[in-house]
Amino acid sequence: MAPKGGKGGGKKAPAIVIDGVDTSEMTREKLEQFTLKVKEELDKEREERNYFQLERDKIRTFWEITRQQLEEAKAELRNRERATEEAQEENEALLETEKQKIKHLKYEQQAAAAALRAENLVALKAAKEEHTEQELELLNDKRALRQEMREKMLAAQDELRRAKLIHAEELSKTRAEFEERARQIEDKAEKKLHETKVELAVKHRTEIAEVEERKNKQLSELIAHHERAFSDLKNYYNDITLNNLGLISSLKQQMEEMQKVKERAEKIARDAVAEAKGLREPLEAAIVDNKELKRQMSNYDRDKAALAAKTKQLASLEEQFEVLKWEYEVLQVRFDRILAERDELKARFSKAVLEVQQRASLKTALLEAKLKNFEGRDLGPREIHDLIKLKDTQVEDLRYEAARLRKAHDDLLATYEAKLAKLGVPIEELGFKPLKAVAVAGITPVIGQGPAGLVTKDQV
Question: For residue 360, is it within any domain?
């Protein structure tokens, strides 16, 4: 129905403002969208109100439980204080009884000490007299031993002089025998060398003559064979030219065979010449050996002096080897001891790290359990702030413990490396790679960020 005209027809409807938005000028679609939006916000506010009411109820319940636990803890504390007072009274009574017992024991001890002192004086006097007699006997024995030692020393000096004389005689005999043997060896070597030269020369001449004879015989046979072959060839050639041209190929084959025979003869001659040269080489080697033997005999005295010097040097080196062997054993013992200390330090450090990890894991488990309990409760801002502060304190405690362990580890490692450097053992020969940081319960290790003034008790 259309609006009526009149005086009121020109007036505007009052503006409706919702959440700061003027709805008087909105169309129907915008009003519907705005209505849906306002309805969603209303539902959201109702859900948040219900959620906060539930959280408030949870916090109140948690506060009641905590207050009850506090009352129980106070009651337990009072009971423990009462038990402590009773135990202290019992300890005082027991202490008084023990003091009386100590007085009686001190009196008995003084009496026993006086009696023992008197007995000791008598025993000391008797022991002193006996000691004086023993001292006189020992002085007499000492004088007798000195006389006996003097006689033995004189006898030992005489024996030493006789041994030196015998040794000098044996040494001169040995030297003479050795020189005689050296001369005999030299004579035998020269004689053998001369015989070898003669035998080689005779053998060489004989073999050369035999080779020349074989060569001449083979040459004469070859010449006769060639002459016969040439005459036969001439006859064959005449026959071939007169009768049959087919014999030419046969003659050619015979010529090739004769050429092969000739080549074999020349090869035999070359082998004979090479064999003669091979016999000349042993003769030259024997001459060289003779010169070498003469040179060795001329250097005999020098080698003998060098042998004596080398013997002395060997004795000195053996002494040095014994000293070095003893030093090596000492160093080995010290190195084994240091390795044992290293293993002990590693075990102690691993044990400390394991304890910290266990404590940190326990604290983490407790915190996770508390967080699970708190997740279903409605905490206010103050309670949340206190809980976060408690967590930060626990995290700082864990970090401080980790820093203390890192500092202890670094101190132990520095001390160990200093000992190794003092003993001359390279750090590369440790057999393991030293740790530089420790990860404890998920805490990121940062080297060098521990407390500056922290000093470990385990430092060697």
Answer: yes
- Amino acid code (one letter) for 422: K
Q: CA-to-CA distance for 106 and 343, rounded, in angstroms?
A: 49
DSSP state of 17: E
**Helix-helix angle 247-298:300-375, to 10 degrees:** 100
CA distance linking residue 365 with residue 122, whole number of Å: 76
Helices 300-375 + 381-423 axis angle, to 10: 170
70-88 pLDDT, tens digit each: 999 989 898 988 888 888 8
The secondary structure element, H or E, covering residue 18 is strand 17-18
CA distances from 346 to 330, 349, 413, 445 (A): 24, 5, 9, 18
**Would residue 430 count as lying in a domain?**
yes
Helix axes 247-298, 28-242, angle to 10 degrees: 110
d(CA 209, CA 279): 13
State the number of CA atoms in the 13 A half-sphere of 245 facing the CB.
0
Q: Is residue 388 part of a domain?
A: yes
- What is the sign, positive or negative, of the torsion defined by CA atoms of 440, 445, 449, 454? positive
Helix and strand tally (H, E) in the chain? 4, 2
Instruction: Provide the token pair at 216.
Output: 């001449």
- Angle, CA 179 vertex, CA 173 and CA 182 arms, to 5°: 140
pLDDT digits (tens, 9 = 90+) for 99-131: 888 888 878 877 777 777 777 778 777 777 877
pLDDT of residue 43: 92
Encoded amino acid at 11, one letter: K
Domain that includes residue 363, residue range: 324-373+383-460
Amino acid at 409: H
Q: Are 411 and 453 in contact (CB under 8 A)?
A: no
3-state DSSP helix/strand/coil % of the chain, to nearest 5: 85, 0, 15
Q: For residue 205, is it within any domain?
A: no
Rounded-to-integer distance, Cα 362 and Cα 6, Å: 86
Helix, coil or strand: residue 440: strand
Neighbouring residues of 168: CB distance < 8 A, sequence distance ≥ 6:
none
Q: How far apart are CA 113 and CA 110, in angstroms?
A: 5
CA 46 vs CA 42, 54, 395: distances in Å: 6, 12, 38
Long-range contacts, stretch 129-137, CB < 8 angstroms, 24+ apart: none
**C-beta separation of 377 from 53 below 8 A:** no
Which residue's structure tokens are 């505007």? 12
CB contact burial 72-103 (16+ within 10 A = b; e otherwise): eeeeeeeeeeeeeeeeeeeeeeeeeeeeeeee
- Tally of domains within the chain: 1
- pLDDT higher than threshold 80 for residue 212: no
